[in-house]
Here is the input.
Amino acid sequence: MVRAVIFDLDNTLYPASASMEAQIIRRMNEYTARFLGLDAEAAAAIRHERMPRYGTTLEWLMAEQGFSDPDDYFSWVHPDGEEELVDFDPMLGPFLDSLPMPKYVFTNAPMEHADRMLRKLGIAGRFERVFDVKFNLLKGKPDAEAVGRVIDAIGLPASSLLFVDDIPRYVQGFIDGGGKGVLVDHFGKHPDSGLPTIRTIYELPAYL
Here is the structure.
């Protein structure tokens, strides 16, 4: 029995068709290039190679490159006004209200980004709590400690929690932590994930 649902934010609570992800990646690559003193192409290549060993680009920079100013990084990657890239969905709030259990957000972004996005989407205040990357001491999904901290904070058995995300390794990380997981795959990019999969969160009730 699912007693609470935990949602990822970006590309989960709004469609992956929005250009938000591309712009975030562009700014991550720009910041990486500036910090490492590389051109944009070289920075993108090394980030693409090394970041998957961690939960986030920030975590990689701190672990391998001696980076120590996360607030500066966040202000560059998630600037004011970024939320204008996504559209308000009038169906989203009522849909979330129809789910008869507590709801949470678990994101690898900082709270400033989460607040902006939830307000733009018209769903701020509909969640019991938002767990951002700072809550997890800058450790991102799928880090086992990050997953465990969120589960402990919710205070329900892991087996009763359902996590919804658009990245297979993040969903698998939550399952490895004892929970349930559903992958949101808007464009069918992960046909071999082996995970329960939906195209949009509006299909989620089938797994509750």
User: Anything to note?
Assistant: The first helix runs from residue 20 to 36. The two ends are 7 Å apart (CA to CA). The CA atoms of residues 7 and 179 lie 13 Å apart. Helices lie at 20-36, 40-50, 57-64, 70-77, 92-98, 111-121, 144-154, 168-176.
